[in-house]
Structure formats: C-alpha cells, structure tokens
User: What shape does this take?
Amino acid sequence: MTKTVYYTASTLNGFLADKHHSLDWLFAVDTAGSPDIAAFMDSAGVFVEGSSTYEWILKAENLLAEPAKWQQYYGSKPTYVFTSRTLPVPDGADVRFVSGDVAGVLEEITAAAGDLNVWVVGGGDLAGQFLDCGALNELVVTYAPAALTSGAPLLPRNVGVDSLVLRSAEKQGEFAVLTYGVRGREGSTQSAEGGTP
Ligand SMILES: NC(=O)c1ccc[n+]([C@@H]2O[C@H](COP(=O)([O-])OP(=O)(O)OC[C@H]3O[C@@H](n4cnc5c(N)ncnc54)[C@H](OP(=O)(O)O)[C@@H]3O)[C@@H](O)[C@H]2O)c1
Assistant: This one.
C-alpha cells in the first residue's frame, strides 16, 4: 500500500539546512551506522521536493553537467518539483514540474508511485502543505547531534500533540531516528479529503 512519507535529516533544533542552504552540519556527522538512505530510496517510487531542494541537488551533484549520475541515483523514477519557475533538467531525467495546491496533483503523484511509497524530500513548508491537506502518512526524522541558529525549518506549522503518534525511536549511529504516524492516516493511501486529521 502506498504511503506518503516525509523523510529528512534535521538538526536537533529543527533545521534542514543553514540560511545559505548548506548541509555542512550534516556531512560533518560520522556516518558509521547511520540511517540507510539507499534502502529508503528503494522503498520510494516517486520523489517530491520544492525548488530549493531540487536546485541544491543539481548543484551539489553537478547533475546538469553529469546527467548520467541522475540515473544512478534515481533510475527511471519520477521526481516532482514544486515551483512557479522554469528550471533546468538533467538530460534524460524524469523531472515533472508542478505548482499550486498539493491536492490538485496528489492523485497524479500517488499513481506515479505505483506500489511503492511517495518520498516527500522537503523542504519543510512543502511537507507542511502535504500535512495540511491530509496527504501525509508518516514523518521520519533523523536528528543529527548539531544545532543551528537559523535556516530552513523542518516543519513550519503548528502541529498539536493529537496529530502525530510516535511509532519508534532508534539510535542509528550518531543519529536519533524518530518515526511518527499521522493520526488517522497511518497505513492508508492518501487522499486530499478531510484536511489535517
Ligand atoms: N536535511 C535534509 O535532509 C534536507 C532535506 C530536504 C531539503 N534540505 C534542504 O533544505 C532546504 C529547503 O529549502 P526551502 O525551505 O526553501 O524549501 P523547498 O521546498 O526546497 O523550496 C521552497 C520553494 O519551492 C517552491 N514551492 C514550494 N511549494 C510550492 C507550491 N505549492 N507551488 C509552487 N511552488 C512551490 C517555491 O519556490 P519557487 O516557486 O520560486 O520555485 C518555494 O520558495 C534546501 O536547502 C534543501 O537543500 C535538506
């Protein structure tokens, strides 16, 4: 059954990146025993991200100049990028630009995932948009032992304690991995009906 999962690394105090979109704080963490991102990628049929995240990936991996790397990472799985702009695409990459309400493209995104999951890569506001319309089933946050004074927020929303259910808390190397189900949406296929549970 397809799940929509917001899976991300975060600082202890809830930032995805610093104010310059740098992940240096994350790459400084010792990777021994760290979360198995490759396995998580295998469980996803579709990647969903905002334009800052997409542009960061393009630049960090030099994907416009080395498009073959895109296939190595994503294979033929589609990436949906939320943006109001026209952005470049690595040769041969299945990148689909969408904009506006998440609810308006949810059915298309879910269908594209097939039997696999939808990975909401980030940023935090886009994950919030999925949560707002009842489209998110799960949050998996891998907390690094680092903090920042400012940057891109993990989830810029008011989320009451009745919205999320802690499913597991694990030590994976230097990371604390917390998995939350979204109350009322655990194990269900997503729909845009009903708003935040
Ligand atoms: N720590 C981690 O594991 C992790 C994970 C994910 C991301 N990150 C990093 O965190 C940062 C996130 O950046 P961010 O907070 O700016 O978030 P983002 O979601 O990557 O990008 C936000 C932008 O996406 C576009 N967008 C979002 N929702 C839209 C909608 N419904 N319709 C049309 N366009 C929409 C808008 O830009 P335009 O319309 O102008 O294009 C918006 O300014 C990046 O640096 C990324 O690399 C880190």
Summary: The pocket of NAP is lined by residues 8-9, 16-17, 21, 23, 26, 49-53, 56, 82-85, 99-100, 121-126, 129, 152 (CB under 6 Å). The two ends are 20 Å apart (CA to CA).
